[in-house]
Design the sequence.
């Protein structure tokens, strides 16, 4: 399950979820200013509620609060980008190894169905769905491996990865490929932990390898359109 898909009565959590999802789907670009008054109007809440959400997003590294200037979508540095990919390799290789030990036919069916959805979205040219499903595949592995704590850590790493890709991508298509995901699923289905770890490590290397760590950020866009 994804935090951005949960339901809650807390207004600041809804704001957090919507901003988180917009970052994960690469609609909110690094450097975009998050105006309190505009967010309060969009979500029909007080500015105090908006500040709660922005504080939580800052805690998770997705928003930077600048005194006397306001809140901005974070702009990861080159060093931070490398650290994010290092953390993902460390966590995700261990998650697939753990999943190999506890995997069930039901879990494999869910993973295979997810890869099928990815292929269908890509074939249809649905960029939004392709981006969403690419990240969701990794979260699904975390969920099936049975580690709520690591799932939560991974969720934040994936959002930061989205910011990094927007800032440093060198190609129009830099999402995780369903074919590589399918190979990982096949290794998990066989219970081959060493192969699954190797494939996941290679997969994350591939994603990082498509980045130009010297490219400038894109211009931010209007909040109202991005959070629609």
Sequence:
């Amino acid at each position: 399950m994804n935090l951005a898909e949960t339901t809650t009565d807390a207004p600041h959590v809804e704001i957090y979820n919507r901003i988180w999802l917009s970052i994960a789907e690469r609609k909110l670009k690094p450097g975009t200013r998050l105006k309190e008054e505009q967010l309060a109007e969009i979500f029909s809440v007080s500015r105090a509620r908006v500040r709660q959400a922005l504080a939580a997003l800052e805690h998770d590294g997705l928003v930077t609060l600048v005194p006397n200037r306001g809140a901005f979508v974070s702009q990861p540095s080159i060093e931070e980008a490398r650290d994010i990919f290092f953390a993902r390799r460390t966590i995700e290789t261990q998650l697939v190894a753990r999943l190999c030990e506890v995997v069930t036919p039901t879990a494999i069916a869910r993973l295979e169905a997810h890869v099928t959805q990815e292929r269908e979205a890509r074939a249809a040219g649905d960029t939004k769905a392709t981006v969403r499903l690419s990240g969701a595949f990794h979260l699904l592995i975390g969920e099936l491996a049975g580690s709520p704590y690591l799932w939560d850590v991974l969720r934040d790493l994936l959002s930061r990865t989205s910011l990094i890709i927007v800032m440093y991508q060198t190609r129009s298509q830099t999402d995780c490929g369903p074919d590589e995901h399918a190979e990982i699923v096949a290794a998990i289905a066989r219970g081959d932990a060493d192969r699954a770890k190797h494939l996941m490590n290679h997969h994350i290397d591939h994603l990082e390898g498509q980045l130009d760590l010297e490219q400038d950020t894109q211009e931010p866009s209007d909040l109202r359109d991005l959070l629609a």
The first helix runs from residue 11 to 24.
